[in-house]
Write a structure and sequence with these properties.
eight-stranded antiparallel β-sheet, TIM Barrel, Trefoil (Acidic Fibroblast Growth Factor, subunit A), 734 residues, 32 strands, alpha+beta, 3 domains
Length: 734
Amino acid sequence: MASKWAKFQMPSLSDADDIPDGVVIQIVASDWSVVAAPGGDWSQPLGLEKAGGQEGSKIGDVFTVVVVKTAEPNREAASSRSLWGMFGFSNTSSKGQSVWGRKQEGGSDDEEEEGVEAGEGEGEAEVEEMEVHVALKAPNGCALSAHADGSLRADTPPDADLLDCHVFRVTRNVRTGKFAFYSMSNERYLRALQPSLLFTSMVQGDAETFSIRRLDMLPKFLGVNLGGWLVAEAWMCPPALFEGVFTDLLDGTSIQLQSVDGKWVAAEGGGGDQLRANRDAASAWETFFLRRADHGAFFIRAGSGHFWSVDAESGEVFANKEDEEEGEMFWVRHKLGEEGTVQLRAANGNWVQALEDGRLIADIDEDAPRWDTTCTFTLSKLADMGGEAQLMLALGREEATRRLQQHREEWAGEGDFEWMAKQGVNAVRIPVGWWVAVDPTPEEFVEGALELLDKAMDWAHTHSIRVIVCLHAAPGSQNGWEHSASRDGIPMWGKPRTPFMDETVDAIRFLVQRYASHPAFAGLEPINEPRADAVSFDDLARYYERCYAVLREHSPSAYFVISGRIFANEREWDDFMTSAQYSNVIYDAHWYQVHDHAEFGSQSVDFNLQYPAKQRAAALQLLERGQRLVFVGEWSLALLCDTSDDINSRFAKAQLQAYLASSSGSFFWSLKHGQGWDPWSFKASVERRWMTPALWPWSRSPLLASLATTAVSPRRRSNLQNGGKREARDRDEL
């Protein structure tokens, strides 16, 4: 029996013998231009669109196939090659002969006969043509029709019966995989006359041959992230998990210090130089990050990652040490009843004071200075880091393990996979940390995550859900945020002369070896959201090359997902891994309007709701240049403007329509979220009817669902494929 997971693999030419009803396609001319409504105006004749680049961009419109009649091909001649597999984009043919048995130039009817004869004998099987009769439905709901003037238009109402003008005989040359479209009413072949399309040709030549992109056979993920499960994040987990944790200064707590003169302490140049209390306002250079060494004792880091230290001779305080071993601990003394009033004692035993010229110097040799001296500072706590390391540090191993294991058991289980499958979800993206590949589990993390990942793969298999395994947390932290399990808010993963990338490749190798052969494994994302100021493009590209090689050692077809650099232009990846030597590479875009205050902070509701259909859709087209596969790996319903049930529902619809038009779909963040975060919760969004199965799955999208209500004559639909009937029945059940 064939594996039920076969339907999730990228199809080869022999994966299907006929056209499934409801397949979604794009039609591509030999110059890489794509059939589309000019400027999106469906009242005009269809034409051809093409963007810059060697092979154009993945633009144009999609059309849904309605099978009218299939012709039985000569199986012996045609071998087992599929009529509707993935045909690629090669527009070459054998020398001196067109793809239809005609010479490429100067051909006549007599020459056509010669060309056919040349294909006899040994090559006869290669030129066998296969055909099917179809109607095509446009995104506006109308069927395409051939007009008397030769134009192709999308102007037949959805409730109209199909006539000869709506039916096209599609023939395919087995050797080349190229197609010709013949109008049954005009009795002419469709010809590409850039930028126009006309049914004018009596014979088939290069201008009458097209390629077909079968979009439904691409990895159209209808996905949900399992965030906050195997990589804990305080902001999205139930409050009980981190209850009592943030009562003290911990690893990753970000602080600012102000002298008694009202001046903010700053690291000159952001770090690597002297500390001075000379700023009237606080910003990035005035922000520091704690790494707790003992109760009340900390290593302190500037935003550059440099540790505080004290000059042995002068006692002046610098932020200039790159390694913790070279840095020095500072003890924090709090004023009783005023936790924000502190004094700092350096490792030399002296208290730090701010001099009149702003320099910080550890030279006060007293047991306990008075609180009205220059040794006193006001400490402002900006934010806490809420990950597993902080949980372990604050609660101790026993209590942290008890809480986190209970959370993991309650946050996701097989019942959740069953529920997701019923909603039409066909994929999950599971964030994991590097420590799942280490035995024994490092002391700052709680064991058991790997066993749950094993179970998740099996649950996914049981419920026909695919899994993208995403390394969300790399050793050293790739972005300094809690979802990367950062210890102190400083991203060190991409820093030169550190072992972290090598260690991460080892973790990737472990994950691939463990899961590449699992039937639920769809692909791997070897890093999530690395920060541009923490890793260079070249270093990240080399890392991706190494991980791609590891994946291909164990799987020739699993998807390899690349995450762009946060705070960098997504377009920097346009030409990366797009050549023929790479396969099944997907770019992962993360789009949240709620995080961009500059763009959306003062905008209207209408602006926010229209943004996905305009800017996001256009951005997807740009990212998909050169046939790049793209999915939107993270998005939510959170907004900065006023919201309501109606607004959330409209925002969901707008995003789904934009993101599901991408080549590879999307993943909502996340399955669940903490109390009061419903716009971030897929489960809550479905329960509150902001999202419904009618909108969510691509296979049951409004475009395909409209096929069920299209009136088609019994004669034209007498041999509708069983697969199409099953799909319609599935829609009705859902």
